[in-house]
Amino acid sequence: MLKFFYNAAPNPMKIAPLLEELGLPYEAIPVDTRKGEQFAPEFLAVNPNAKVPAVVDGGMTVVDSNAILLFLADREMKFVATGVRSAERAQTLS
Ligand SMILES: N[C@@H](CCC(=O)N[C@@H](CS)C(=O)NCC(=O)O)C(=O)O
């Protein structure tokens, strides 16, 4: 199952609605950055940048909120234009 590492800050909170809208099953794993949990070895193994959000999907790890949004939309081919050179794709990226 997809793992979603988050806290309640705006960048991680961009990911949660998309996961819900896509209807993907996921495990939400809190990382309390106020307590320094982003520097725990277990989390640094996921994201050496020590930032949330991060997702682990099978053997793939994606970090950075916008990268994750695109990764998930591309994965499901929803909410994003799939023609990489299309005007619609450019609009989505903008
Ligand atoms: N560009 C990144 C920024 C990620 C980021 O700054 N995350 C913050 C929470 S919103 C964080 O993990 N801060 C912990 C730290 O800097 O130690 C993104 O969009 O995901």
The oligomeric state of the chains shown is single chain
Would you give the CATH topology?
Glutaredoxin
* Total number of beta strands: 4
- The figure for the number of domains is 1
What does the model show?
The chain has one domain (2-93): Glutaredoxin. The protein has helices at residues 10-13, 15-22, 41-44, 65-76, 87-93, and strands spanning 2-6, 26-30, 54-57, 60-63. The longest helix has 12 residues, at 65-76. The mean pLDDT is 96. The chain has 5 helices and 4 strands. The chain is α+β, with helices and mostly antiparallel strands. α2 (15-22) packs parallel to α4. The protein is elongated. Strands 2-1-3-4 form a 4-stranded mixed beta sheet, covered by helices on one side. Glutathione (GSH) binds next to α1 and α4.
Layout of helices and strands:
Layout: E1 2-6, H1 10-13, H2 15-22, E2 26-30, H3 41-44, E3 54-57, E4 60-63, H4 65-76, H5 87-93
Parallel strand pairs: 1-2
Antiparallel strand pairs: 1-3, 3-4
Helix pairs in contact: 2-4
This protein binds glutathione.
Task: Give a short synopsis of this structure.
The protein is built from 5 helices and 4 strands; from the N terminus they run βααβαββαα.
Q: Can you give keywords for this protein?
A:
19% strand; binds glutathione; Glutaredoxin; 4-stranded mixed β-sheet; 94 residues
